Amino acid sequence: MKMLSYLLVAIPLFMVQKGFGLGENGNIEELSAMVESHIVAAENYVLPKDNAKLIKVDPYKIVGYYGTFDFIIIGAGTSGSVIANRLSEIGNWTVLLLEAGGHADDFSKILGLSSYLSYSDFNWGYNSTEQQNACLGRINQQCFLTQGRGLGGSTILNGAFYARGHPEDYNRWESVYGNPGWSYDKLLPYFKKSEHAVFYPRDKKFHGVYGPFTISQVNSTPGLVRIKINEMKVV
Ligand SMILES: *[C@@H]1O[C@H](CO)[C@@H](O)[C@H](O)[C@H]1NC(C)=O
Ligand SMILES: *[C@@H]1O[C@H](CO)[C@@H](O)[C@H](O)[C@H]1NC(C)=O
């Protein structure tokens, strides 16, 4: 499956790295209108009480149209996308990747405004359970848990932050839940394998450079800056 190109575009970090142009073919008015319409939509968005409305498939209409597959992956979020991509490297394996949401548009590339997307159908709208010592300022002490719904999953919503878990969390998984192979030391080679780290200085003991997943420091938003510069020239 030619999934790689599909999936990589779903990762905002990659987009920033490649400098995908915001409104490259448009102009500043179009861009402002697009931004404004998303902000207005977010401000008027009603968080779902029951996110079944976000699943648009009618179970009675599912037919065997797509054939049979060696693997069916539910969710084209960060991990589903990576798993589908890796499995599809074996040419004679067939892989079906299912995703309830769609493609996020240019608005999701403006990282500083990504919190508005939490108030849209790109977020499943979950809350945490009631917390004892956290979320003190929230109704019922339940935090808002943004979980992306769309190609790229939560990378649509999280402002392109990249953070590896704390080593002790992985070590705990291994020891407490009996998951041999899930300690930080055993996972580190895979973290490195996935990474194309382009920040400096970088410690090669912890970061990889040959993987598909570009990690960089935050750049400015190149397309927007270009439009601004053009606009200034006109003025
Ligand atoms: C989550 O909490 C917010 C208010 O804090 C509420 O508007 C929303 O309906 C809740 N969502 C669910 C699924 O209960
Ligand atoms: C895939 O192809 C290889 C080599 O052509 C073959 O050995 C293998 O059995 C095939 N696997 C499947 C699942 O068809």
Automatic annotation (TrEMBL):
Residues in the signal sequence: 1-21
SUPFAM superfamilies on file: FAD/NAD(P)-binding domain
Residue stretches spanning the membrane: none
Domain (Glucose-methanol-choline oxidoreductase N-terminal): residue spans on this chain: 148-171
InterPro entries: FAD/NAD-bd_sf (IPR036188), GMC_OxRdtase (IPR012132), GMC_OxRdtase_N (IPR000172)
Pfam families: GMC_oxred_N
Keywords, ordered alphabetically: FAD, Flavoprotein, Signal
Family as reported in the entry's similarity comment: Belongs to the GMC oxidoreductase family.
Name this protein carries in UniProt: Glucose-methanol-choline oxidoreductase N-terminal domain-containing protein
